[in-house]
């Protein structure tokens, strides 16, 4: 949806004095600006969303919003603020026994701690997040945390540890056929294999990487063509309808003669 759509929705929510709706619209505006790359506006709207949440709402909603704000801070490389925001998100999620949200906030904290140079703390949080995801058997969460751990181990040049962690992520993503995740995973996995002198495996993984990239490109092209076809059909129907209206008008004029 466009910014204009959400701005109109915001005006309606404000007239109705609906705090929950106002917070939701601010969140949507924050998300929209985040994906459009305007981090200042994204931060501004997400803060307003957090402040606007009514007290009667589920506390996990506040956890989601402050977590989103933490992601924006991380994207802006403002890691101190990101650390503070993600700690709040984690605390709220843990207090409400929401393991999945707790795991997300904990893995986000691990990334932030790593960027702050607090490597031991980062690995500790990451292991905790992996355990949380295992408790609820959330495969994508386990895979993502394993990928992060493999990436951390690469930075530490612990190639055997990186190989073990990345292989776990790859195995899950292959089973789930998560192509975009595999594109990230295969690229790093090939580098790891080369570092441990397993060049045959590195070569085969690079072939898989190219295959996945081609598949993603093909899928995106098909979706783009389908979208163009829809627009063309819609435009064609509009033109046909307009021509019918002109023809009917002409027939009416002729009948008057």
Characterization of this structure:
The model has no long low-confidence stretch (mean pLDDT 87). The chain is mainly alpha-helical. The longest helix has 58 residues, at 199-256. Helix 1 (3-16) runs antiparallel to helix 2 (19-35), helix 3 (39-52) runs antiparallel to helix 4 (59-75) and helix 4 (59-75) runs parallel beside helix 6 (99-115). Helix content is 87%, strand content 0%.
Features:
257 residues, 11 helices, mainly alpha
Summarize the structure.
With 257 residues, this protein is an all-alpha fold. The chain has eleven helices and no strands. The radius of gyration is 25 Å and the shape is globular.
Fold topology:
Blueprint (H helix, E strand, L loop, with lengths): L2 H14 L2 H17 L3 H14 L6 H17 L3 H17 L3 H17 L3 H17 L3 H17 L3 H18 L2 H17 L3 H58 L1
Helix pairs in contact: 1-2, 2-3, 3-4, 4-5, 4-6, 5-6, 6-7, 6-8, 7-8, 8-9, 9-10, 10-11
> How many strand units?
0
- Structural class call reads mainly alpha
Overall outline:
globular
The percent range for strand residues is under 5%
Q: What value does the average pLDDT take?
A: 87
Low-confidence stretches: none
First and last CA, distance: 49 Å
Spatial extent as radius of gyration: 25 Å
- The percent range for helix content is over 70%
Counting DSSP H or I runs of 4 or more residues, the number of helices is 11
Largest sheet: none
Order of SSEs: HHHHHHHHHHH
């Amino acid at each position: 949806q466009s910014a204009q759509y959400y701005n109109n929705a915001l005006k309606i929510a404000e007239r109705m004095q609906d705090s929950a709706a106002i917070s939701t619209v601010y969140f949507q505006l924050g998300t929209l600006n985040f994906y459009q790359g305007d981090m200042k506006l994204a931060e501004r709207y997400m803060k307003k969303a957090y402040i606007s949440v009514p007290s009667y709402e589920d506390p996990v909603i506040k956890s989601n919003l402050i977590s989103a704000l933490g992601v924006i801070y991380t994207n802006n490389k403002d890691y101190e603020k990101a650390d503070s925001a993600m700690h709040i998100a984690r605390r709220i999620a843990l207090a409400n026994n929401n393991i999945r949200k707790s795991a997300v906030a904990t893995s986000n904290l691990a990334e932030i701690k790593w960027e702050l140079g607090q490597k031991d703390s980062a690995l500790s949080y990451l292991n905790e997040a992996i355990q949380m995801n295992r408790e609820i058997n959330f495969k994508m969460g386990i895979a993502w945390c394993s990928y992060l751990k493999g990436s951390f181990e690469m930075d530490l040049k612990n190639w055997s540890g990186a190989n073990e962690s990345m292989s776990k992520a790859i195995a899950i993503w292959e089973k789930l056929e998560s192509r975009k995740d595999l594109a990230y995973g295969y690229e790093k996995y090939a580098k790891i294999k080369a570092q441990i002198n397993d060049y045959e495996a590195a070569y085969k993984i690079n072939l898989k990487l190219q295959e996945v990239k081609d598949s993603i490109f093909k899928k995106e092209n098909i979706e783009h063509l389908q979208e163009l076809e829809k627009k063309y059909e819609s435009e064609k129907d509009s033109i046909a309808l307009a021509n019918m209206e002109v023809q009917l008008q002409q027939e009416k004029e002729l009948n008057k003669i």
